[in-house]
Design a protein that fits this description.
Blueprint lengths: L4 H11 L4 H8 L3 H8 L7 H9 L5 H6 L16 E2 L5 E5 L10 E7 L15 E8 L1 E6 L2 E5 L4 E5 L4 E6 L4 E8 L4
Antiparallel strand pairs: 1-2, 2-3, 3-9, 4-7, 4-9, 5-6, 5-8
Length: 182
């Protein structure tokens, strides 16, 4: 029997209204550590998992005994999308509980000048998106493109990537990734 530590941790973190950054700060680890664990790209040591769970707080026994229900809801009103972003980048997720799901769908909104960071994102899986409005600079490996309304991207998420809103208007994107990485 294998336990999906990543999805279990993500579910509990979101249930406690914690961002990956906030949980990492509480646990004394980097937010990339939380991201790697949640995407099942890294398996934490028992000690590291205990420190992370102390940041929620929840005990190890309760963590492994906890079995979230798989989502059954099929339709979501705009106000039911779950905000999982922070600051100048909004990530509104379809469904609050992704436990047992292999696809994550987001409505993203980047404020002018906002950026996912100078350090490129890297994780397992694939992702794609379509720009609805504004202009988004997307960098994948050493290739960079500025995308406008109707333009799209799709790539393996193991390739280093970065997103940045360019221009004076916010940029809205509908994206999907598998497996869920936030």
């Amino acid at each position: 029997m294998s336990v999906d530590i990543g999805n279990r941790l993500r579910h509990l973190r979101l249930a406690h209204n914690l961002s990956q950054r906030e949980l990492a700060k509480r646990a004394g680890v980097t937010n990339s550590t939380i991201s790697l664990i949640e995407s099942n790209s890294a398996n934490p040591s028992v000690g590291a998992l205990k420190r992370i769970l102390d940041g929620i707080p929840i005990g190890m026994a309760e963590f492994f005994a906890f079995e979230p229900e798989k989502p059954k809801k099929a339709f979501y009103a705009a106000e039911e999308l779950t905000e999982i972003g922070k600051g100048p980048i909004s990530y509104r997720q379809v469904g609050e509980n992704l436990f047992g799901r292999s696809l994550q769908i987001l409505k993203e909104c980047y404020q002018p000048g906002s950026d996912t960071g100078k350090v490129p994102l890297v994780h397992d899986g694939e992702e794609g998106g379509i720009v609805l409005s504004g202009r988004l600079e997307v960098t994948v490996d050493d290739e960079r493109r500025i995308l406008g309304p109707g333009d799209a991207y799709y790539f393996e998420s193991r390739r280093p990537h970065r997103f940045r809103c360019v221009g004076p208007a916010p940029c809205e994107v509908i994206s999907a990734c598998t497996p869920p990485s936030f």
